[in-house]
Structure formats: structure tokens, C-alpha cells
Design brief:
This protein is α+β, with helices and mostly antiparallel strands. It is built from four helices and nine strands, in the order E-E-E-H-E-E-E-E-E-H-H-E-H. The mean pLDDT is 96.
Length: 126
Amino acid sequence: MNIPQELKYTKEHEWVSLQGDMATVGITDFAQRELGDIVYVEVDTEGEELDRDEVFGTVEAVKTVSDLFMPLSGEVVTFNEALEDEPELINKDPYGKGWIIKVKVKNPAEMEELLDADAYKKYIKA
């Protein structure tokens, strides 16, 4: 299972990469494996400011629909439009082409509250 060291993680299985005050957010390799084949991604919060842990969208797999939770407070500035035609990018490349949103972060200090790769590994094996 792929858990990149440079990213931060949530207990809801989102990953975060922060550059300056812009965060890229997606779901982890573990999450996409658990969900199975992803057939639809819905994010209707683009342009909205959300608090950490608020739902920003959903991922629909063949058997289930899962909410997506904000890992950091901020404004959803971009949705990965490639997912509209190819939601399976999340299955193929969850940390690359399968990213879901970009967020203008309100409080970068919240990054310190997220799990590092080692803590996330322990969490999913618990």
C-alpha cells in the first residue's frame, strides 16, 4: 500500500499536500481500495469557505457512497474536473492525477493536527 511520507493524513482517509497557503486534497490509496471502483465524484462546494471536518463532497463507488471531509479550514478554490469524465483516476493514481480539490487554507497551523505517514499506517492497521 502506498502512503507517501511527505503528505499528511486524516482519520477519514483524506490526504493533504500543502504548498504555501494552498492545499491539495484527495483520498488515500487505502480508501480507494476499500471503496472499490469509483464511478462518480461530486463536489458542489467550489467557491465556498468550509471549516475543518465539514463535508465538501462525495465519492460514489459501485457499492457505496462516501462523504469527503475537509482536512483543513479554508475555501474550496478548485475541483479536479478530470474526475468528471474519469472518476477512476482516483483508483489509478490517488496521490497524483486523482487529486480531488485545492483549498486556500485559512489556518495552516491545522496541518500539525493531521497524521504523518507513520501515524496513518498505524491507524489503518489498528
